[in-house]
Write a structure and sequence with these properties.
The chain has 4 helices and no strands. The relative contact order is 0.14. The protein has 111 residues and is mainly alpha-helical.
Length: 111
């Protein structure tokens, strides 16, 4: 699925409710909450904070998808086409960071 299609799906979901999109700072607060949930799970799995005995393991894929949903909502609310924006940012990284990292041996860019 392309980002444009994902943005359309998120917009269709949000637009079916009278409340619609939240104000920008409320959406940002939601994003912060979702990133916090991902950080908590990552810290439990890979960091120094063990889970409580009765605390269930969370699905990292779903935590990431929650973040993506909110990012898509922010983009929609602000009229940003993320397909265009991602293309622009990848070009920025190619230009700025092309000599910053060690290329893989075969030069393909794929691990």
């Amino acid at each position: 699925m392309e980002l444009r299609e994902a943005q359309r799906l998120v917009d269709a979901w949000i637009s079916q409710f009278e409340e619609g999109y939240w104000p920008p700072l409320s959406i940002l607060a939601r994003l912060t909450e979702e990133v916090g949930e991902l950080a908590r799970e990552m810290n439990h799995r890979f960091g120094h904070k063990p889970k409580k005995v009765d605390e269930p393991e969370q699905d990292l894929a779903l935590e990431l998808a929650d973040i993506l949903f909110v990012l898509l909502a922010i983009a929609n609310d602000q009229g940003i086409d993320l397909d265009v924006a991602l293309t622009q940012v990848m070009e920025k990284y190619r230009t700025r960071d092309s000599d910053r990292w060690t290329p893989v041996a075969d030069g393909s860019g794929e691990g």
